[in-house]
Design goal:
single chain; about 375 residues; mainly alpha; two-stranded antiparallel ribbon; 10 helices; 7 strands
Length: about 375
């Protein structure tokens, strides 16, 4: 009797009327949203514009889904093109079956198209989105839990996955939950990339290469535990060989890139820098204009004060001169009045003298 285990859902799809709601699809959609959200935050922190990551994801996500499905169909072609199989099932993505190697490869092509249209270097975009991709994988792996697929070997561990379905050759029992192992590993990879990027200022695609290398290490040992059918080469599953080759390529890229292009990109989105410079110039022009207006407004006041002072002084001088002129006029009037008085006195004296002379003349005649 098992004391503890991870139960599997009885159904991987719910129906809202005639509309099917599939757990696998929900996990993929949620993972995409998380990747875009985190990628946008990292892109803005690097100097890019908000919304650029979402715009480019419009190209990257569809290409990634097609690439992931193509890789799965090509590497497991017998599931769709062998005798008794229906090749139409190859298009039923909602039933599961996406290869991460094909998703990353063709998704990079879509991202390159989007970056080229925006004038953005693809390595810088890849560095920003890398931890988000790892988290998207961590969430997407729970879609395998809804479909009861991609589990490992039998085990009696308390966290064993209880498989209840017997469809497509499944044998009900308790198995290693490899979907959970990979989900936890991807979360660790995301945290590793975020830490290393902050610590070493990774740039020019090295953060993305670190994500690829770290994921391949975990995928190798998790792949080894799986029991689903797969092609083998020299005793190893095909995905083990793929992980080994991709891991080596990622490590080589990190080493060579660090020597040829050390450090991080100074500018990740020219349009963002251009808009920032324009805003800065406008602000500077506004400040200069305000300073000029303040200075021009102060100068007239000084001029007005000086003019007023000059007028006051001039007015004061004119008043003094006027007062002096008025005093001189009054003095002249007084002098003329005095002269007139003297003239009248002389006239009276002359009249008296004439009377006296007439009187004396009359006395002599008598």
């Amino acid at each position: 009797m098992e004391l503890a285990y991870i139960p599997s859902p009885s159904h991987g799809v719910l129906y809202l009327g005639p509309v099917p709601l599939r757990g696998y699809a929900f996990c993929i959609i949620i993972g995409v949203f998380v990747a875009v959200w985190l990628g946008n935050r990292r892109w803005v922190a690097r100097g890019g514009q908000a919304g650029t990551v979402a715009d480019i994801s419009v190209w990257a996500v569809p290409f990634g889904l097609v690439g992931g499905r193509l890789y799965h169909v090509i590497t497991d072609y017998e599931l769709y093109f062998s005798e008794g199989r229906d090749w139409v099932d190859a298009f039923k993505v909602w039933e599961g079956g996406l290869g991460i190697w094909g998703a990353i490869a063709l998704g990079a092509v879509g991202a390159w198209i989007g970056c080229r249209r925006r004038g953005i270097p693809l390595p810088a975009y890849a560095d920003a989105i890398a931890p988000g991709i790892a988290l998207a994988q961590a969430i997407g792996r729970w879609g395998n839990w809804f479909n009861q697929e991609l589990y490992g070997k039998e085990t009696d561990l308390p966290w064993a996955l209880h498989i209840t379905s017997s469809a497509d050759g499944r044998v009900p029992g308790y198995y290693h939950p490899t979907f959970l192992y990979e989900s936890l590993w991807c979360i660790g990879v995301a945290l590793l990339v975020i830490w290393a990027d902050r610590r070493f200022k990774l740039g020019h695609g090295r953060a993305f290469a670190l994500y690829v290398a770290a994921y391949c290490v975990g995928r190798a040992w998790i792949e080894y535990m799986r029991v689903d059918d797969a092609h083998h080469i020299l005793g190893l599953r095909l995905n083990d060989w793929t992980a080994l080759v991709v891991f080596l390529l990622a490590v080589v890229y990190i080493v060579v890139s660090a020597k040829k292009r050390p450090g991080r990109e100074a500018v990740v989105e020219p349009a963002a820098q251009a808009s920032g410079d324009t805003a800065g110039d406008a602000s500077a022009d506004g400040e200069e204009k305000a300073d000029g207006e303040e200075k021009s407004g102060a100068e007239p006041s000084s001029s007005g004060a000086a003019a007023e002072s000059a007028e006051t002084k001039a007015g004061g001088g004119s008043g003094t001169e006027k007062a002096a002129s008025d005093s001189d006029d009054e003095a002249e009037d007084r002098t003329e009045a005095a002269a007139g008085t003297d003239g009248k006195a002389e006239d009276r004296t002359g009249a008296q003298a004439d009377v006296k002379d007439e009187a004396e003349s009359a006395g002599k005649k008598s």
